[in-house]
Amino acid sequence: MTLVESPSVAVGTDLPDVQFEDLDQYRRELTGYCYRMLGSAFEADDAVQETMVRAWKGLDSFEGRSAVRSWLYRIATNVCLDMLRGRQRRARAMDFGGPYPADSFKPDTLPESTWLTPIPDASVLPIDGDPAELAAERESIRLAFVAALQHLPAKQRAVLILREVLRWQATEVAELLDTSVASVNSALQRARATMAERDLEDTDVRTEDAEQQALLARYVDAFERYDIESLVALLHEDAVMTMPPFNFWVRGADELGKFFVGAGHECANSRLIATAANGAYAFGSYKPDPEGGYMPWAVQVIEVSGDRLVAHHNFIGPENFELFGLPAHLS
Description:
- The protein contains 14 helices and 6 strands.
- By secondary structure, it is an alpha+beta fold.
- The chain has 2 domains: about 180 residues, no CATH class; about 110 residues, Nuclear Transport Factor 2, Chain: A.
- Strand 5 and strand 6 form a beta hairpin.
- The longest helix is centred in the first third of the chain and has 17 residues.
């Protein structure tokens, strides 16, 4: 996978008189960095909070020898390395076996710490900016790319993100990690080799393209009416569906169709609210509530390639709705 280049990081600005606002302005990009490192939006938020606490407590020792931004990235990197020490990597359902037949679904779950989780675009992407730069940012938070990052040792992961996503110079990364340029270059080479071995699906990032918008409008219409024939017609023949925390996934438009009318029949008459996650289209999916209205069920991350939907990832649980700022219930 080749990432679109974005501007190089500028370091070296002396800012000895630091206020909290000088720190907090970097929260969004630090969240993106920590999310790529940790694979969890919830842990990324915790890591950024800890970074801010450590930075605020350490202001007296900050003498402006480096930029506030690079100083915060040093702290955030150390926080992430501490959090990653001794734990298993987060993954997608496809990393645990399968695919499974649509009619073999069982409600077997794995702990939250097992799973790669989605993140709202609003938490990590710039509010505005050059379209090419925004496309590069969206590309670097795709679920497949973040999942592939988790296969790297923690320091290699940091090097790859800093060098190839954030476009830091090797000298800047070496200074941040207290190592040599040669060590950084070696780690980057090994990280690139590992990433090249991962089978990263080619999907389109979210845009305002009229054809993409029309495709998603047809999807929403078909899903809310639960018109399975129309829904399946929008899927690529090799489309996949996952349902964390359920240890289950299916591949193929026909298999997804069978699942929707089988174990997934309770999603009939659902309502969708649009949002954005991992550089892709996303929806909060609400099932009919027996007591009235609609109850939160899953945040769907919908991946598109050309004129077809290629992935239908369902992240189940009310905590995801809170993360995305979605309503807790629909009347």
